[in-house]
Write a structure and sequence with these properties.
The protein has two domains: 104 residues, Nuclear Transport Factor 2, Chain: A (Roll), CATH 3.10.450; 114 residues, Nuclear Transport Factor 2, Chain: A. Helix content is 24%, strand content 36%. It contains six helices and ten strands, in the order H-H-E-H-H-E-E-E-E-H-E-H-E-E-E-E. The strands form two sheets. A five-stranded mixed beta sheet has the order 1-5-4-3-2, covered by helices on one side. Strands 6-10-9-8-7 form a five-stranded mixed beta sheet, with helices on one face. The longest helix is centred in the middle third of the chain and has 16 residues. The radius of gyration is 18 Å and the shape is globular.
Length: 253
């Protein structure tokens, strides 16, 4: 099986309670867990499978990206209510040795009319992975981290921009409108550090840390690039709990 297939099999075990994928594909002695609600190690996951099955957990995988030893999965979950989740797995010698994720309640009444998870799924332009990754990394630094905000429009094809953040309308105009409204409410969004980037072809996922409205937040942003411009965006934002609320000491990132 490919690493992509192994990652999906582990996620599907959350709904069917089958421990074999976790026991077969996750390292028994190296697994580092960054979901703060699970105990560290493989047993933290396998010990939760019966409960997750009993509450009717469902996982609908939409997109899977792979770069090097990392596999990123974008899914819609039923997990104590509808959720949108990014999972990232790191592999060593065919075994999963580390896991990160970000979880957000699904919002159905969106500003753009798009759902948080629909849109393009096909991976194309694999020969452009490096340049697309560089483009998105520069966008995050220049615009989201505020290092050179004047370059904002250079990253887009006019107002042709599909937005899946549930609170923002399509286009750069929609983004500007949302930021203006938040500013009027005293809500600020700050990206302070990029921790991970996973890219394959026309898709690039960035994992960042910052604050939203003064609250410590983890930002997972997925961008689709077309002809050298950012064409589509999905995200999942999660508040990072206090350290004393975590089940382990590995941290969110």
């Amino acid at each position: 099986m490919t690493n992509k297939e192994k990652a999906v099999a582990v996620l599907e075990s959350l709904q069917n309670g089958d421990k074999q994928p976790a026991e077969g594909f996750i390292s028994a002695d190296k697994y580092i867990q960054h979901n703060l609600t699970f105990e560290d190690g493989r047993e933290g996951l396998t010990g939760s499978l019966d409960y997750l099955k009993s509450i009717g957990t469902q996982v609908d995988v939409k997109r899977v990206l792979e770069e090097g030893d990392l596999v990123a999965v974008h899914s819609e979950y039923e997990l104590n209510g509808p959720k949108v989740i990014f999972d990232i797995f790191r592999f060593e010698d065919g075994k999963i040795v580390e896991h990160w994720d970000n979880i957000q309640e699904s919002v159905t009444d969106t500003a753009s009319g798009h759902s948080m998870i629909d849109g393009e799924t096909a991976i194309t332009d694999t020969d452009k992975t490096v340049e697309n990754k560089e483009l998105v990394e520069n966008f995050v630094k220049d615009v989201l981290m505020g290092q050179n905000s004047a370059r904002l429009t250079s990253y887009f094809d006019g107002d042709n921009y599909i937005q899946h953040n549930p609170y923002i309308e399509d286009g750069l105009s929609g983004l500007g409108k949302a930021l203006e409204a938040w500013a009027e409410q005293g809500v600020t969004m700050n990206y302070d550090k990029v921790h991970l980037v996973v890219a394959e072809g026309n898709f690039v996922l960035t994992v960042s840390e910052g604050t939203l409205g003064g609250t410590h937040t983890s930002f997972y942003d997925l961008f689709r690039v077309k002809d050298g411009k950012i064409a589509e965006h999905w995200d999942v934002l999660e508040t990072i709990p206090a350290e004393d609320e975590s089940k382990h000491e590995n941290g969110k990132f």
